[in-house]
């Protein structure tokens, strides 16, 4: 590895990207416009469905007429601490323990108040009466939940097209053929391309996150450093995947088709727009095979649940293994012409 040759290609690629004002503007404005749109669209009261978590054995549910009330979604839960955190964030409107004859609501949640009145009204003539417990906490908005997915999706398009499509363009216009005649090695060239795209992707992601956070104020229960590690590891994995497409493809049209074939299924399988909890188990298993899923799940765990690197080690390990596999395949398949 000759660092002077590496640095020359690295600087050249950076200048090429920064001088392309349209691409730079798109990488910044596209995620900002999506996040702002979701913040506006879901700034109202949201859906009308009541969600009540129920602790314990389902056999105890029948002791109260409240559990026969229509339009309430009763969700079995086993871990009280996790359920209480959801009540705090308004993800559950109420938590009931039929065995202990008690319930929890968030005093700041309108739906919790309504459910409490319904519970008291339905069970006014029955015994025993549930005892009240309260928790407090800020609700998780849809824009808070979707924001890590939007950032990761923007990273995905930037990494795949910023490496895969660009190298194919170099090969088509003869630039790679001219570079082959120089002392530059494939390792130096690919390393410069990967490093350039990595720092550009992370820089734009930080700018978008910091800019939108000034106006929307996203919840952050974990560490910003841990979140940066997740995005950096994920970006390396996505860039390595783009190298496979760029290894031998000579047609820009074919490269665009292959990159779209990779990116759009990842977008819908990774839970960018909606949770995968209710989809078919086979699709849930398929989602674990793409890097975008691990990036989004790890980022949401840090921001919303306060997870540390140890808690998301499985996602980080999966991203590292994918990166090594993609990078090895891309380097092995790479050809100058």
Record the SSE blueprint.
Layout: H1 3-19, H2 21-41, E1 50-55, E2 72-77, H3 80-88, E3 94-97, E4 102-106, H4 110-122, E5 131-135, H5 142-172, H6 175-180, H7 186-216, H8 224-246, H9 252-269, H10 281-287, H11 291-305, H12 313-333
Parallel strand pairs: 1-2, 1-3, 4-5
Antiparallel strand pairs: 3-4
Helix pairs in contact: 1-7, 2-5, 2-7, 5-7, 5-8, 5-9, 5-11, 7-8, 8-11, 8-12, 11-12
The helix content, as a percent range, equals 55-70%
Overall morphology: elongated
Strand content: 5-15%
Radius of gyration, taken over Cα atoms and rounded to an integer in Å: 25 Å
**Class by alpha and beta content:** alpha/beta
Q: State the total count of DSSP E strands.
A: 5
The SSE string, one letter per element, is HHEEHEEHEHHHHHHHH
Strand order of the largest sheet: 2-1-3-4-5
- Give the biggest beta sheet: 5 strands, mixed
Distance between the first and last residues' Cα: 21 Å
Report the total helices: 12
Number of domains: 2
Q: Indicate the low-confidence ranges by residue numbers.
A: none
Mean pLDDT: 80
General description of the model:
This protein has helices spanning 3-19, 21-41, 80-88, 110-122, 142-172, 175-180, 186-216, 224-246, 252-269, 281-287, 291-305, 313-333; strands at 50-55, 72-77, 94-97, 102-106, 131-135. The protein has 337 residues and is an alpha/beta fold. The protein has a 5-stranded mixed sheet, with helices on both faces. The chain starts with a helix and ends with a helix.
